[in-house]
Write the C-alpha cells for this entry.
Amino acid sequence: MATEVAELVEAVVTMALGTVGWLLRHPATLLVGVVAGVWAWSWGWVSLAITAGCVLAGGIVWRVLHRASFEYRVWRHIRAGALRMWVYELRWPRWARASHLVLFDSDFPDPMIPPIRKVISGRWWDEMHVRMLPGQRQRDYDLAAESLANSRKVERCSVREVSPGVISLGFLRRDPLAKPVALPEITDLNGDDMPLDAVTIGESEHGAPWRVPLLGSHLLGAGMSGSGKGSLLWGIVRQVAPAIQAGRVRLSMIDPKGGMEAEPGKPLYHRYARDDADDILELLTSLVESMTIRKRDLRGVARKLTPTAEMPFELLIIDELAAITKYLGDRKKEAEATRLLGLLLTQGRAPGFAVDAFVQEPTKDVVPMRGLFPYRVALRLDTASQADMVLGEGSWQAGAWADRIKRSAPGTAYVVEDGFEPLRVRAGYTDDPEIIRVARTYAAPVNEENDEA
Ligand SMILES: Nc1ncnc2c1ncn2[C@@H]1O[C@H](COP(=O)(O)OP(=O)(O)OP(=O)(O)O)[C@@H](O)[C@H]1O
C-alpha cells in the first residue's frame, strides 16, 4: 500500500513539474492563460468571450487591409509558437533519434536530445535553433540534413551554426523558386555611374535578390545541357548593358557553338569569336595583351581598377569552356588557349579583367583551372560528386544537392557564398526578344579594331 502511494505521489509530482517546466518554456502561452484567467475572474466569461471576439475580428480586418504588416507583426509569431508546440517539440525527439543526433550516456537514465532553443517562422522557411550536445559538431548536423528534410517532409533542410554551440536547422515550408522567377529590372542608373561589383540576376531560396560578383571576380557556371546556363549568361549581360553602352564595360564573347547562343547579342560585343580556333586564340591573345598594358599603366597609380570609359572593365564570357580546353581540335592550340585563360584568371582581377565561363562537364580534364574561379555556380548536374567538384569538397553533404534539381526548374542552382552553407538560387529567364531588345537599346560603342563586331 505504502509503495502504491509513493508511486502515485511520484507520478503527480513528475506531472506537475513537467507542466510547470512546459509553461516556463512557453511564456507567451502562460501570459495569455494568466491574463484570460484574471479577466474571467474579474469581469466574467461573457466579457472575456466578447473581448476575444473583438480582438479576432480586428486581426481579420488588419490581415485583409494590410497582409504584409499583419504577417510581420502578428502572424509569424503565432505560427512559430503553434509550430513549435504542435510540430517541432512533439516530433523533434523522433527525428533526432532517426538522424543519429541523440546521445546515450550510461550515467543518465534517459537519452540526451539536443534541446530546442527557439523556433522562428518566416514566409518560406521555419528555423529551429537547437543546442548541440557535448561532443557534437556542425558536421554531424550536416550529415543529418537529408534525413531531417525527409522526416519534416520538406525538400530542403539547411544547417548553420548561429552562435557557438547553437545550430539553426532551416526547413523550407514553401519554395519561392518553385515557379520561374521574374527577370530583375535593369538598373535605371546611368551606365557611367552604375556599380559593377555585383549584379542581380535572380532570387535566392529565401526570397532575396541573387547577386553575382562581377568586377574583381571570375565566375564558373556548370550544368547539364538544358540546365539554364544561358539564363545566367544573359542575366549578367543584360544587367551590365547600360555600362556597355557607356563604354565602361567592354564585353568579349566566345561562343564555340558557332554563335548559336551568342549571335543575338552581337551589337553588345567589343570582341567576338565563334567556333574558329584561330579566332578564339586571337581574342584571348588580344585580351592578355590589353591586360599587360593595363598592368603597366596602373603600376604605382592604383592597386585596383575603377572602371571608366578610358579604362574599362573587360568582361570575357565563354559559353562552353570545354570547347576551348578540350575540343578545339588541335592539342597545341588547346594548350595555348588554356595558358592564356590561366593568365587572365590569375592576373586579371586587379586590373579589371574578369572571366565568366560556362561548362557542361566540370571534371578536371575539362576545367583544369576550376580553383581559379572564386565564384562558382552548380546548376543541374549528373552526380553528387560533380556538385563537390564545382562548389568544393563536402558541399553536397552540406546541402548543395545539384543532382536533385528538377529538369522542370531550369536556371536553378546552388552557390556557396563567403563560406556560408550552400544557397539555392534561380536566375530569371531572358528570352530571345528581350536579348534582341537589349542589344539594340544598349549597343556598344563602335569598335574599329574588330571586324567581326
Ligand atoms: N531561368 C530560367 N527560368 C525558366 N526557364 C528557363 C530558365 N533558363 C532556361 N529556361 C528554359 O530552359 C531551356 C534551356 O535553357 P538553356 O538553353 O539556357 O540551357 P543551357 O544550360 O544553356 O543548355 P545548353 O548547354 O544545351 O546550351 C530554355 O530554352 C528555357 O525555355
Q: What stands out?
A: The chain has a mean pLDDT of 89.
